[in-house]
Amino acid sequence: MRHKRRAAKNFFKTPKGLLTIILAVWTWRVEKRRWLRMLALAALGTVIAQGILGGLTVLFFLPAPISSAHAAVAQTFFCIAVCIAVFTGRRWMQEQPRTEFDTRRPTLFTLTLLSIFVLYVQLLLGAMFRHHGMSWWPHVVHAGVVAVVLAWTAIRAISVYSEVEAIKRPAIMMLGLMVAQLCLGFLAFITRVMWGKDAAQPELPMVVATVVHVAVGALLLATTVVLAIQVWRHVPVAFEERVPGQNPVAA
Ligand code: HEM
Q: What is this structure's pTM?
């Protein structure tokens, strides 16, 4: 009971919890788009889930699966917050979406969803390693899969839709962040696994490398989500894909 009361108190004390409540109430009051109001509620839901997982992590002495779920929910919250910023931004409200049908296979939208999926897997593998639930090698091997899928997605987006700014911008950013993240991953590996294995306490190079690696990981995931949203808006899948047997036609 005391634990529950303390968790509730901490929820209101943290700026994240309080600010998300303000965001949800504000959005609910002023926003006309129902789905966006639901998204603000979802943001609040992730903060509550985050609080519960945080409490369970402490209660059960840092079990790797719960700590990893905590890491995944944290990044999901960040992605939802970035999406809300995109959906309420001036550019989103004023710009005319240029709907151009995508007839290639796999579609760019499918590639963006695949990118989000492989990034979540990478996040969970990294978190499992970080919390001593798994060896480092699945995370490092899967980084190769992430690099291939994200490079494929970015190159397709940049080469085919170079004139659609809303797609080109996040695609270039995603590619740049991915290259930076691979380099930071190697730095984190050297400082944490090779040098830091027997360290009595975390040393500064290791702290900097791992913290920046986690932060850039979150930015990379959010950028990929923004790319998926912009592709969904500007390049819908061909009509044929939705109604089998009919030619692609403009809506
Ligand atoms: C684009 C590819 C990569 C992504 C998206 C990525 C993402 C992440 C994330 C999100 C975490 C932290 C998980 C958590 O919240 O606990 C993490 C941890 C880690 N990653 Fe990566 N990573 C990538 C590539 C690599 C590579 C190539 C290496 C090594 C060669 C690497 C080494 C590590 C290490 C050592 C940790 C643990 C850091 C710690 O102890 O705090 N990563 N990674």
A: 0.90
